[in-house]
Design a protein that fits this description.
Oligomer: heterodimer
Shape of chain B: elongated
Order of helices and strands of chain A: HHEEEEEEEEE
Mean pLDDT of chain B: 93
Low-confidence stretches of chain B: none
Number of strands of chain B: 8
Number of domains of chain A: 2
Number of helices of chain B: 0
Distance between the termini of chain B: 33 Å
Helix content of chain A: 10-25%
Mean pLDDT of chain A: 82
Low-confidence stretches of chain A: 21-34
CATH architecture of the largest domain in chain A: Sandwich
Largest sheet of chain B: 5 strands, mixed
Number of strands of chain A: 9
Structural class of chain A: alpha+beta
Helix content of chain B: under 10%
Structural class of chain B: mainly beta
Number of helices of chain A: 2
Radius of gyration of chain A: 21 Å
Shape of chain A: elongated
Strand content of chain A: 35-45%
CATH class of the largest domain in chain A: Mainly Beta
CATH superfamily of the largest domain in chain A: SoxY domain
Order of helices and strands of chain B: EEEEEEEE
Distance between the termini of chain A: 27 Å
Largest sheet of chain A: 6 strands, mixed
Strand content of chain B: over 45%
Radius of gyration of chain B: 16 Å
Chain lengths: ~160, ~110
Amino acid sequence: MILDEPHRPSRRGVLALGTGTLAVVALRPVAAEAATRTESTAEAIRRFAGDAEIRPGRIHLDLPPLVENGNAVTITVTVDSPMSPEDHVRRIAVFNDRNPQPNVITAHLGPLSGRAALTTRIRLADTQRITAIAETSDGRYWSTTADAIVTLAACLEG
Amino acid sequence: MARTLINVPKTAEAGAVVTIKTLISHPMETGFRPGADGRIMARDIITDFTCLYDGETVFRAELFPATAANPYLTFTLRATRTGTLSFVWRGDNGFAQTETATLTVT
């Protein structure tokens, strides 16, 4: 790039940019409607946990409250557990509210895991609430939620 | 073959909990995105990741389109003996890749 020449946007460029932005704005609701959810978050959670009672506590979900780019959001899930053969976390699942599909990740752990901790990067299509649920070896379920505000959404605009 | 990055400590004390980081290059096409021609592009994601410690499954994750491109996973493992760690990724269109690393327990 030439830096010493003052860069002035041409009239043509500004006009093209204007129509482009308008087209994006007009397309957004259409794209959002096209990606109708196949299953609700509650249904997906029931498919994971069955009819068991899900209580708050023991699980921690860490994600940035303000997400600039929804295409890659680092989340960390940890569960308070001794991870012994008698008392450990069997499964950890993460669900979302507003993506086209409610599931985010389902992890299977065991006493050999040593710690119940997991970090990954996910996509967020919208400002929404993330739910993490852990199943412990005694068959009980623990959950927590975290909210994320997403300024640039993943999935829909590609 | 997709490129992978695997971070396993070279050595660990017996009984210590080690952190393992894995990353694989993969587009993770969601199946919800329109392509250049306006039509929805077919889903192409990694659906399953497994870590085996001397052939025994110690960690498994089911992935969905909500996983970001180039799936990155960090998890932990209790080091009990010197052995081979195998990392297996499986996905759509018959995607399968296995990588191995050695964990030396002192």
